[in-house]
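Q&A log
Question type: sequence-to-structure
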Amino acid sequence: MAVTYTTAAKVASLMRLIDQTTQARLVFSTDTDPTLAEVESTINRMEDTVDRETGHAWRAVQVLDEYYDVPHNCYNLYQRQFAIHLKHRKINTLVSGIDKIEIWNGNEWDNLVLDANGYTEGRGDDYWLDYNLGVLYLAGQKPWTLGKGVRVSYRYGDDSVPGDIEEACTKLVAIEIAENDDYVIQLPEGVDKYGIMSKVNSWKKDVERILYNHREIISI
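Response status: OK
Response body:
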């Protein structure tokens, strides 16, 4: 999986790693420990951590079969539509065959996004979506049951990575490497294990602050 929030080169730069043979700045490769592939795998895991801790994403993330109860008070009598707040915002444009908005019709799930079913997206039609805020409006359709009567599959996420999210992910990866005794990291001359672990503690505080500031508030 491609990396998005940071790069192995930025992790090496943050840690100030050097090649002890040439004394040149170290770049992760197939010959280093950890290898480039291992660092990129760690980046992918830390990207998931960032998404989970903030409740948001700065890349395209797929959500599958997210169930929603339909509270009685979410029905707008004047506009004759249900408003359902999805668990995420910055929704990607719905695509037939990939994304789904399904309502339970009493016998089966009816997919409003599937072209073959003949439903139309629009404020005056069957459904529409506030893509920025992540609010789904069922304008012409009503689920047969209100308990888990709606099932949604969609993609969400911003298309650019803020600098502090890049910083948080970079530091999360560096922390993982520094704390993993299986890795033989090349520390700059004069920097001992105590010195790098002192940095780790500072990085952890930075990460906690950044992720807290980006944490989503879920609408109820």
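Response note: The helical segments are 8-15, 36-54, 163-179, 193-213.
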